[in-house]
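User: quick one
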Amino acid sequence: MDTPIIIGTETEYGISIKNVLEQDPVAASTLVVNVYKDSNLKKVTWDYEQESPFVDARGFMSGGENQQPDEEENTIINDVLFNGGRYYVDHAHPEYCTPECTNARDVVTYEKAGDLILHLSRIAAEELLPAEQEVIIYKNNTDYKGHSYGGHENYLMSRQVEFDDITKGMIPFFVTRQVIAGAGKVGSENGAESAEFQITQRADFFETEVGLSTMVARPIINTRDEPHADEKSYRRFHVIVGDSNMSEFSIYLKVGITAIALKLIEKGVIGSQFDLVKPVIQNQMVSRDLTCKKNVLLEDGRRLTPIEIQRSYLDLAHKHLQPHEITSVMEDVMAKWEFVLDQLETDPMSLDQHLDWVIKKRIIDAFIERHSLNWSDSRVRMMDLQYHDIRPDKGLYARLKKNGRVHQIVDHAEVVRAITTPPTDTRAFFRGSCLQKFSGDIHSASWNSMVFCTDGSSLDKILMDRPHFGTKEVVGDLLKNCTASELVEAVLSSNANKE
Amino acid sequence: MASEKQQEQSEKQQEQKESPTQDHTDNAQPKDEVTTKGKEIKDNLDQLLDEIDEILEEDSEEFVENYIQRGGE
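Assistant: Done. Structure below.
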């Protein structure tokens, strides 16, 4: 099984309007999404025909209706972006999805481009509001009152892998991954055991091991089976257990090591060897152990630290990944993975320029010491929230970055460019390029479809069932030299020939 | 702007040069230099805390209490 690596993330942002009598998060989200435009051309709608969020990977359909907005609402709440990503209103949050990427570094670039898109949106939205009102957007996962919103990851996998193998291999991986990927949180919620500070924003919200729901009784392993690709060849593994990260280093390692762990599962080398006793409870315990050295209990009776379990996955990667499978980014990810595990072993606080939870803990500790505060002080809770404020002048993470106190993975110029430029090595290139060149001829789009209307009346749908096709190498010349109707004709006739 | 970028690049190059298991401390460093560096780090942190004092939302109690979201996903 040599499944191409395809990764994308989805971020739901928290939103609040300052100096308003009554908060209306739906209206606020709609305002910021609708005010943003890549160009002055008409907006392209989302093709909901390709959605199937109620199909369960364990082989059944769950109850629920696919809700499809009417055309006007579709235009207002959706934006398909020049960079191949999607920006839309999801329930009561603005949500940004990166385009499909082939490596962890590109994910960092495009996720950070999303933060900038939200920032540009909030500036444009404020222009439309009374002068005293401010739009504040947080890239975090909780309001600290029991309401959580997600930072999801998606990984392309072979359909041949049994879902049960994914469950067995990934539960222990996720329970221990948080020592690297956690965004840090002051306090606890959702009825979970109290804590002054914990490693993740989300552990308190996970109540089951496996399931389809993302909003109640959240599962560590989400079974949504909506491949957005050829369903006979692929599944899309939808990860909901992680935090949204501010730190580039955290995003990079989070998606980089997860893609590697999934490769190991495809190779069948994980099996049940790390099965945990009561993973939901241990997930919360790991989140509360800031030393990262308390043992986790395995079904076979072993007791290992989260660091040791993560190191076992890394060792298996060294052992089983063939040299030709290890890309330069993967090699770098594995080196940084080892570096982080070594540092966590010696002193977790030494990662105060790398990992979100440690960066946040370090500045809050210093603030508490300066003002002789305790952990429940409102200024401490405000620091936690404001760490995630996306404004460059107000966000605490942003200020740390400006002061050179956090480690960066990508250049700011690359991030700016990624706002309007798609990756060249996935179908996002085709999507983003078509939107830039043929916007007036496109009716709608989705992850795996582009619907053209070149004559003003009839619709032609181009399906893009292979996420690693539609690259610049393959379609670059064609896109450069043809009109929209020539493109549609060329692609549809080539598909007809294949059939 | 240009110098910031250069700095970023040189930091990056530095990071690439370092092997991940390498010891980051330089044992050969003279003691007074370590003290100076330690003071620099502390001053830097103090300056950052001054900034945080300045930018932290006022009325944090009210602000934090009023920040209510609907669950999403």
